């Protein structure tokens, strides 16, 4: 079956494209806004200049008319100035709508209406195939009107010149902008490349922390996550190495005993020696088998065991009750008094794991309790949660050693009963996976060992009638 590979993409190119697109878009939008604003202001300036020119010509013509009142419709001498005729035309009319003055190139017909209402008015006309801007105004005595016309091409020429300059500026600036952004983005990503090079050049066992100095603040969370991963991997490797070394050390003793007993069997001189060696061989094999079984159980409890654990609401008393007959038989065989006080208590637990925990605690209790001693199992529900307690009258564990015994392969220096030192490590791992508290204290009759486990109370299990009296070791915590 063909599996399509996910599309690869470059953060550097994507960021550069986005920044360039955004920057150029904003610049173009700003240029358009500036151009439109400048065009509007230039139009207002042109209109103001046109009106001022019209009022100035009107004042001069009014003065001239006062000195030549006897003349009838004199015509202003035409000035043959190409630029003047190109950029400005004007007409002066009297109150009887007669043309008094006109500039060279100006027609003899009025640009706009000659009515009294057309005072200080701007407008647009079509003349000679192009658009013209007009302005008309009467003098104070309302007997003379001036009409001024200016071609729009002059205004458009200036606006076009301004637009060309903006485009030329863009052609010069955009390449510089592209180069500057490319350099800036590459400089920012250089720190990522430095980290990548540092990681790629490391040896497999090199798990020391990455240096955050010089790295951008935005990638600090990524580097912290990588450092935490390195730390977890380093701890896992250390645990595996320690586990392997301890397991090899512990297996050496039963294997050596097996080899010794085999040699004794081979050299036995009679059936009695052979039977004694065979019994020792069986004991050594049992010890090795038990150790391997506990090692396998402990390996199963390694992370991410607790992440894949499915906890279900279970009545602890109902779970343990079927186990009591078997442990009762083992206790009687060892000549130990066994009692159980199981009361209902519902908690979120993984049944198989709890049975492994219970088996390890009961095995320790029966093995370390002498003949004639007592072992008691109790469980129930309190305000603090659902508890499980196993107490005995055995040798117990000194207070200063009660934290260390949860470590793998740790045993008391004066221990005379064979063991691997893994039972309480297994119990601790299972308790942690259930978020349960685990405490060691004195057992029965103020001697021996009492192990108390408290599971968080399942919220839906409200059973006031089933609540039991909290054990002494629980109340002390």
From TrEMBL:
Family matches, as SMART domains: HATPase_c (SM00387), HisKA (SM00388)
UniProt-annotated location(s): Membrane
Domain Histidine kinase: 246-459
Membrane spanning residue stretches: 162-183
InterPro entries on file: 2CSK_N, HAMP_dom, HATPase_C_sf, HATPase_dom, His_kinase_dom, HisK_dim/P_dom, HisK_dim/P_sf, Sig_transdc_His_kin-like_C
Keyword Membrane: yes
Documented EC number(s): 2.7.13.3
GO MF terms, alphabetically ordered: kinase activity
Keyword Hydrolase among record annotations: no
UniProtKB keywords: ATP-binding, Kinase, Membrane, Nucleotide-binding, Phosphoprotein, Transferase, Transmembrane, Transmembrane helix, Two-component regulatory system
The HAMP domain, residue ranges: 186-238
One Pfam family recorded for the sequence: 2CSK_N
Catalytic activity: ATP + protein L-histidine = ADP + protein N-phospho-L-histidine
Topology versus the membrane: Multi-pass membrane protein
PANTHER family hit by this protein: SENSOR HISTIDINE KINASE YKOH, SENSOR PROTEIN QSEC
Protein name: histidine kinase
Organism of provenance: Undibacterium rivi
């Amino acid at each position: 079956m063909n599996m399509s590979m996910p599309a690869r993409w470059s953060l550097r190119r994507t960021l550069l494209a986005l920044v360039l697109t955004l920057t150029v878009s904003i610049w173009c939008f700003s240029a358009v806004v500036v151009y439109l604003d400048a065009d509007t202001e230039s139009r207002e300036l042109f209109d103001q200049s046109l009106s001022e020119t019209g009022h100035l010509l009107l004042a001069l013509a009014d003065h001239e008319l006062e000195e030549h009142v006897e003349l009838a419709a004199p015509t202003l001498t035409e000035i043959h100035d190409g630029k003047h005729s190109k950029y400005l035309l004007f007409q002066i009319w009297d109150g009887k709508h007669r043309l008094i003055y006109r500039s060279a190139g100006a027609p003899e017909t009025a640009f706009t209406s000659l009515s009294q209402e057309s005072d200080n008015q701007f407008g647009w006309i079509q003349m000679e195939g192009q658009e013209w801007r007009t302005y008309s105004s009467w003098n104070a005595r309302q007997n003379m009107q001036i009409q001024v016309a200016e071609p729009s091409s002059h205004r458009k020429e200036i606006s076009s010149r301004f637009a060309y300059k903006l485009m030329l500026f863009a052609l010069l600036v955009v390449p510089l902008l592209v180069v500057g952004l490319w350099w800036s983005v590459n400089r920012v990503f250089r720190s990522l490349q430095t980290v990548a090079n540092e990681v790629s050049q490391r040896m497999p066992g090199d798990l020391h922390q990455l240096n955050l100095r010089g790295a951008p603040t935005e990638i600090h969370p990524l580097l912290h996550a990588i450092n935490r991963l390195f730390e977890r991997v380093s701890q896992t490797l250390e645990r595996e190495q320690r586990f392997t070394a301890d397991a090899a050390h512990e297996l050496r003793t039963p294997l050596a005993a097996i080899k010794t007993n085999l040699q004794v069997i081979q050299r036995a001189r009679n059936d009695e020696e052979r039977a004694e060696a065979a019994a020792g061989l069986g004991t050594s094999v049992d010890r090795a088998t038990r150790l391997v079984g506990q090692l396998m159980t402990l390996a199963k409890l390694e992370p991410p065991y607790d992440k894949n654990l499915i906890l279900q609401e279970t009545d602890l008393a109902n779970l343990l009750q079927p186990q009591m007959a078997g442990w009762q038989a083992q206790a009687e065989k060892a000549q130990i008094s066994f009692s159980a006080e199981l009361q209902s208590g519902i908690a979120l637990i993984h049944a198989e794991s709890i049975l492994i925990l219970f088996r390890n605690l009961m095995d320790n209790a029966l093995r370390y309790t002498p003949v004639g001693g007592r072992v008691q199992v109790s469980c129930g529900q309190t305000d603090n949660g659902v508890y499980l307690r196993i107490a005995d009258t055995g040798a117990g564990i000194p207070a200063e050693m009660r934290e260390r015994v949860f470590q793998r392969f740790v045993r008391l220096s004066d221990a005379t009963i064979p063991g691997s030192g893994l039972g309480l490590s297994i119990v601790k791992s299972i308790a942690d996976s259930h978020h349960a508290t685990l405490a060691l204290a004195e057992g029965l009759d103020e001697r021996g060992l009492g192990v108390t486990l408290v599971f968080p109370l399942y919220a839906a299990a409200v059973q006031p009638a089933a609540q039991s009296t909290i054990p002494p070791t629980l109340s002390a915590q």
